[in-house]
Design brief:
With about 130 residues, the chain is an alpha+beta fold. The chain has 2 domains: about 45 residues, no CATH class; about 70 residues, Alpha-Beta Plaits (2-Layer Sandwich), CATH 3.30.70.20. About 25% of the residues lie in helices and about 20% in strands. The protein has 4 helices and 6 strands. A hairpin with a 5-residue loop joins strand 4 and strand 5. It starts with 13 loop residues before the first helix and ends with a strand. The mean pLDDT is about 90.
Length: about 130
């Protein structure tokens, strides 16, 4: 599910449901806290038995569409600082955001039609070459 549809468990907190099923090892964090999420996945994998990792965050596409309807909305995007980018392609290969484009020369660009400008990608660049385009 993409998060836009109602479902039978809409009114039941997922943590309560899992605890009710007897699951003892439940890890939860915001999806955009990528280092915490990575730690939770590692901890869950180390558990002998069943464990669950819940990664929550509102759908940014839905959120952005709602924001666009408000007066004074300013569209934001990210850009790649070519001076800092060492073309390790972590943003393209590991983060996998569809707004990143790898050009034939190895440089990375951003498709502004797809970029929602939330900046979550900035956490993954080891060179800090991704910045908000003002």
């Amino acid at each position: 599910m993409t998060g836009h549809q109602d479902h039978a468990g809409s009114e039941i907190p997922i943590e309560s449901l899992l605890k009710g099923l007897g699951i003892q090892h439940i890890f939860s964090c915001d999806t955009y806290q990528q280092s915490t999420l990575t730690e939770h996945v590692r901890a869950a994998m180390a558990v002998d038995g069943l464990s669950v990792v819940i990664a929550k965050h509102p759908c940014m596409l839905k959120f952005t569409r709602a924001q666009m309807k408000k007066p004074g909305f300013v569209s934001r995007h990210v850009k790649i600082d070519d001076e800092l980018c060492n073309q390790s392609h972590v943003c393209v290969e590991n983060f996998g955001c569809p707004s990143f484009v790898r050009h034939a020369d190895g440089s990375v660009g951003v498709n502004h039609d797809l970029c929602i400008g939330d900046g979550s990608c900035r956490q993954v660049c080891p060179e800090k070459a991704i910045e908000i385009d003002q």
